[in-house]
Design a protein that fits this description.
Length: about 280
Amino acid sequence: MLQNGSYSSTPRAVSGKRSERMRLVLSLLHEQTSMSQSALAEALGISAATLRRDLADLDEQGLLVRTHGGARALDARSEIPVRLRNTQFREAKQLIARRAVEMIPAGPYAIALSGGTTTAEVARALSNRSGLTIVTNSLTIALECAARPKLKVIMTGGVVRQSSFEAVGSLSENTFKAINVGTAVLGTDGISVSGGVTTHDETEARTNHAMVANAQRVIVVADGSKVGQVTLAKMADLSEIDDFVTDSDADPAALQLIADAGVTVHIVDLSAVRR
């Protein structure tokens, strides 16, 4: 059913503008595998000196390899780190988060949140709720929620992935298996009929599936760019998903296929924020 609505080294802190620029560098290299400095500078509309500083930082963080006169991606399948993704499609993610929060009952109630920039927006949208218990394997979401005195936070154990700041592995999976939650809110790198709900890392996928399997209701949240995409590892089949919240930039045909598979699709309208 389709529902429309209105609604290495330690990473350095970077400004929102620079974070977006560095994310674009990695996106271009993922698409092209390698590019010259002149081509990158022209594509981004920046000076050669600015590009050299960005490439040096990205190389130091182990996110690309500098070459003579350019740069290349480490792996075409690798993911862009969450710290560089947090400015992308920000308004869409905020609207998606607000719609998802509308589906969550008042407390006392337990919610599981996976890592990701859209689920982080869900955590922020829950900040004024009371009586909620948040179970998460995301360091960033745990910190966000722990600062809110009305929220109780349970953080899973596990090995922390550098790119996503999520704890994964058997310790995290066992925590999710031991706790029953009313709703699990799952972020994703891709959702489609052919691939289900997917992410870039197979260990992260297993951990998130443990979260899904022990929830009474599962809501997937993702901006429209993820719709129809398939990445390496499946977190859940569409049959395990109750609701999917996305935005009006998503491919309508792909959304219809997801709805036909039995998922209730909620679409937030981006036209208002673009006026």
